[in-house]
Structure formats: structure tokens, C-alpha cells
Amino acid sequence: MKETLPTRKIHQIKVKKPLYFSHREKLSCPYCGNSEEFYEIIENANFYIHYIQTSEGTLEPIEEEAELMGPIKFFCASCHSDLSFLKK
Residue 55 falls within a domain, yes or no? Predict the structure, then answer.
């Protein structure tokens, strides 16, 4: 004799979440007003580049890896001020 189980109703609840658009302000240096050029310096980094040698004798990179062990600092390219606090 087979037991029949009552069928269970499955309810789906759909919730619409509000859309958030991340608005970013244009970065500018608080010391000189530069808003065009910036650079980063990575301290204590190891770069591993794997090469393969072609039949002509040239080396072609096939894989690159980077290992960052130190802080990344962000600078203004005009006055060279440390702006790391702006990029966080």
C-alpha cells in the first residue's frame, strides 16, 4: 500500500530592490588642483614573467603574475603629493 503525501504549495516572493548608481566625483589634488594625471607606486612587489623563446630567438611573454606585499600609494603627477587617502 502506497502512502500519498499531500502536495505542498510553493510560494515565491519577489522583492524589488532600489537601484543605486554609484556616482563618482572627479578626483582633484587638494594641494595644486590637478585633476588630470596621477600615478601609483607599489612597494615590495614581485613580478613574475614567464617567457617562451621563438625559433627566431626572441622571447615572448606568455604569462605574467604579480605578488604585492607592500602598500600601494597614490600620488599627484603635478606636485607629487601623497593622495592615498583620496583613493580609499
Answer: yes
Q: How far apart are CA 73 and CA 25, in angstroms?
A: 20
Identify whether the C-beta of residue 48 lies closer than 8 Å to the C-beta of residue 65.
yes
83 inside domain? yes
Dump pLDDT digits (tens) for 30-83: 999 999 999 999 888 888 999 999 999 999 999 988 888 889 899 999 999 999
Residues near 45 by Cβ (< 8 Å), separated by ≥ 6?
Answer: 66, 67, 68, 69, 70
State which H helix or E strand residue 62 sits in.
Answer: strand 59-68
* Whole-model pTM over 0.70: no
CA atoms of 26 and 87, how far apart (whole Å): 11
